[in-house]
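During the first year of the project, the team set up a workflow for recording each protein of interest as an amino acid sequence followed immediately by a discrete structure-token representation. This format lets reviewers and collaborators read both layers of information side by side without switching files. As required by the reporting guidelines, we include two representative entries from the current panel. The first entry is reproduced here exactly as it appears in our internal archive.
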Amino acid sequence: MNDYREIAWQGLWKNNPGLVQLLGLCPLLAVTATLTNAIGLGFATMLVLIGSNILVSLVRDYVPKEIRIPVFVMIIAALVTCVQLLINAYAYGLYLSLGIFLPLIVTNCVIIGRAEAFASRNNVAKAAFDGVMMGIGFTLVLMVLGACREILGQGTLFDGADLLLGDWAKGLTIHLWQVDTNFLLAMLPPGAFIAMGFLIAIKNVIDSKLAQRTMPANPEPAVTRARITKVS
């Protein structure tokens, strides 16, 4: 159980792919203009991450080290194609909204990095759990960033939820305030870059506070030993 707790802690916080490893920043900064887009891309990435971790762990003993990266990329590409076809079939509006960044999941460093660093060295259960935790961690960062940008940019939440869930979800849009013109800086990638910097700074502050709490309240003072030499 301790191993799984450590995997969860690594994926959700300590080694979060978005806030710590800074992997997959291209889709993270470009697609998260709304919370709906962030959720769609996050779940697509998580599905591919879980599937690739499982398959890489299954074939790790049969793939020569010299060709392991091309094999991993082929596995990821096959899974991305399946996810892309599913989104195209059941959420066509979201498929159009995500655009080129959906097939570009193949080159997402989060997925290939976990396949190489973890899945190829651990059993199927741990590899699958690592995919779940890393996927959730990455999706949470996408959601927080997408929510912040959507609120600042157009004063709404869940705008375009029908693209992900169907026509019935049009009523899920929350209008926090009315804006005459959208705040373009928040909606464009430079605004996402600035918001991402604030998120990383907040995480660093929280980490420093947690580190201070774990330190002993009254550390023992260092004892200085004096050497006495007897003079005759």
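The second entry, processed by the same pipeline in the following quarter, appears below.
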Amino acid sequence: MTVPTGRRERKKAATRQKIADTALRLFLERGYDAVGIRDVAAEADVAVTTLFSHFASKEALVFEQDDNFEQRLTQAVIDRAPHEPLIPALRREILAMVRHCTADGSAPIYRMIDESRALREYEESMRLRHAESLATAIAADPGLPQTATACRTIARFVIDAYALAREAADPQAAVDEIFRMIEAAWEAA
């Protein structure tokens, strides 16, 4: 995520973060379904319209780093060194994200997501969107002459690798195992 440079942009970013932090705290304290949008807005001391100018839905409050996740994956493709293979670059980024999301304190968030049908459905639609963005970045790379189907398949595997490793008892080992399969699939394509 880019750092806002102007005063107005910094103020908007700070308001967005305050809303997201407040929402997450309330969801974890009271339960996702027990907290309404008006509760979050009141606690964050913003108008409901301000909240919706930053977040499209209640579910989006939980996944406030959604754009950053998508951007990091596409940047792993675009910004990798010349002649660096694709799969190791994606593996490195997924491993960094898995380490971040399995750090202390994140378990209650994922438990909340698992317990909420609305959040699980939102996360699934988000993963599909991320996979499409990643597939587009892979397909746009002239050094990766693969079919659109191969690009979309690998992108979905990578996105699913994140979710599977995040849930594993040994996330690092899971990333290693999953990416061996992804590498084999990419080579077979």
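For the second entry, the following points were noted during internal review. The CA atoms of residues 1 and 68 lie 5 Å apart. The chain has a mean pLDDT of 89. Both points are flagged for discussion at the upcoming steering committee meeting.
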